[in-house]
Predict the structure.
Amino acid sequence: MSASAHSTAHSHSPVPEQPEEESRRDFLILATGAVSAVGVAGAAWPFIRSWSPSADVLSQATTEVDISALGKGQMITVPWQGKPVFILHRTDEQIASAKKGDAEKLPDPAKDAERAQKPEYLVLLAICTHLGCVPQPIGTGNFGGFLCPCHGSHYDTSGRIRQGPAPKNLEVPFYAFKDDKTLVIGKSVG
Amino acid sequence: MDFMKFLKTVALAAAVVLPQPALASGGPALPTQSWGFHGIFGQFDQAALKRGARVAVEVCMACHSIKYIKFDALKQFGFSEAEVIALAEAQSHNKKDRMTSPMDPVAAKDTFGVLPPDLSLITKARKGYEDYTYAVLTGYLTDADRALVQKVMEDGVLSEGELKELSSALGVDAHQPDKVKEILTRIQANENFNKYFPGHFLAMPQPINDGSVTYPDGVESSLKQMSQDVVTFLAWAAEPTLMERKALGLKVMLYLVILTVMFYAVKRRIWAKVH
Amino acid sequence: MSKSIMDWVDARLPVTALIKSQATEYPTPKNLNYWWVFGSLALFCLIVMLLTGLFLAMHYKADANQAFDVVEHIMRDVNYGWLLRYMHANGATFFFITVYVHILRGMYYGSYRAPREILWWFGIIIFFLLMATAFMGYVLPWGQMSYWGAAVITNLMSAIPVVGEELVIWIWGGFAVGDPTLNRFFALHFLLPFVIFGVVIIHLWALHAVHSNNPDGIDLDEHKDTIPFHPYITIKDLFAMGVFLLVYCAFVFFIPNFFLEPDNYIPANPMQTPAHIVPEWYFLPFYAILRSIDFLGSFSKLAGVIAMIAAIAILFILPFLDRSPVRSFRYRPLSRQLFWIFVIDCFLLGWVGYNPADATRFNGALPLIVVGRTCTAIYFGYFILLWIITAFDIEKPQPVPKSL
């Protein structure tokens, strides 16, 4: 299409025939090369995409947890996207301890209210921010919280780092309360 | 030279004719249906898929699994979350579960003598594909056929006219009255006859009858309609990527036509000097 | 700048000289017709198979309990997994189509004749390796045809006297085709394509040593009758590749199951053989030859296997059977007729191979086994007759041009 437009544009100019042939040919070859390159890139795409998480993996992007049976002071560990997540039903003392922590000087400052949507429930990605070990359950560390056994990092009842080598607080994954009984961890994808 | 032409023509004809898949020998030819999802531009009819899913879950899954599909995949045909949960729970499943039958495999084998096959790939796994599945679902004896069988068995004689009528109803060669008689005896013994099943007798009694399922969309649930719908659903279950495949295919073909024409033009130019 | 880098490299590894002499300025006959594009198309198929195969292997699991499910996982869950899998499955078919045309082109234009015997032999080795690779690849989806195809073909080894039975058990790694068989076939199916790639390089080396044959089958004047490979042959091959891709993609996207047997969508069941098992279409002529030897009593089984292997192995001695002073069949009227009869015969053998062993036509008047035997005789007859008409000067070749 553009090749013919190109040639018409030049048909009135007094350029001798031979060079025009040449330039038309160059244009055609360039265009063909460009179209081929698009094709090669397009053909590479399915191969590249085949490494992205497959549909069955994506369907595990979220985990639904029934928390109706989780009593005060109890904690469960649930797998989410292949990683452990702590869900703690906090006691009033644990909540109070966490609130108290808000005023302290923290290595990674954060308010408890920002970390727990409902004060009773604490949801944490149980991966130590130091070198990726899984911390021990609630009550094992100083500040009434979690101790990472690998290198002695202590997290408080809000999962904030208080003592030890870990640089950051335990991560709070995206979660939502679907209803009173059901907690959904993660965002659904696709 | 003429002999050469003849040989080349035969070779060409052989190349075209011989690779055609041989028709399944024995048994009547399958009646062909027109499936909307066939052909280059074919698409699944979403309403038929929704109806078919209902038939599959409420009828087929009493015995068969469709294990490569999960219940919540049905949402894409317009089932609501609540409907999917209801369908799943009726089979004692969670909505994220695979669509497996609640029937215990051991019990199934005891009842039927064979394990009901998984239906996920059924339309791809039989010669005749969708037409075959449809033909088996609709290939059981009609009431009229049964009455005729009954009459012949009671009379104990097989007249020429009855033989003709039966041979077409049963899909058996009219030149083989002994075979027709053998089939009649087995029908009388309550075996499940099917016109299109290879060997004619199968463990599965007629699964779908008029009105087996109530369609909420008001479409009449006749045997033919439900069979059409459920086969459409099973074709989807066998290849959920079919529409994606064809859509991409059209783009790829269009691109390749352009590219090939361009290659040809460049080739002509480059070779112009040689010729 | 880039020139000085290239000079630096060339002083140490003469890349530019190699590209010039073996690719861009490599002299090719002016008069090559379109039958000559199938060599590069076959190479293109090999690359497509290597790439799609590599990416499929990243998702596949060679485990008898999981293989069937994992193929369906690739088809349904993996992004574009269906495309990779259909490209690979149909790629095998198109690879064989290009290779068969490539072989027949060589046979018609006498490309196996001196000085191209070694080139021809490496081609046959590639063909053998290709068949082995395709056979083992077909086992991997672990459907009914995979399983029973593997059972039947491995059982062929049991025809070997004395050690046959032991050999089959060794190949299976068990008392039947099973999980160990699947695992070793997967390992070999992954390895062999790279071996093929290596032999292809030798095949090309041999080609570049003696240069391409041409439709006239004559020795060419390197200056007058040849053109540089680039851009002439490159663009011609690219155009052919475009046409090839159109046909290939039409199958991949619109009728991907055309060459696949429905039975292979049923999971492998060692307790039940499908009513009618057939190998993939590209093995059918050889399968028909195998079955056609049924008249030698207890020796039939071994004889069938020998005949099947001989059907390919005979290609090795083809350069010595053909004694004609002329290479190309273009100038050999009798050979030409024999050639086309041979081609028709191969199609007929394929058709016989597709049908059940005891099938008949014309109300039982024509058992296909008779057709199979006749076609097998014609198949080998081609090579014998070619020798007779050329060794005893029965064929009078037409005058051959001295140059183009």
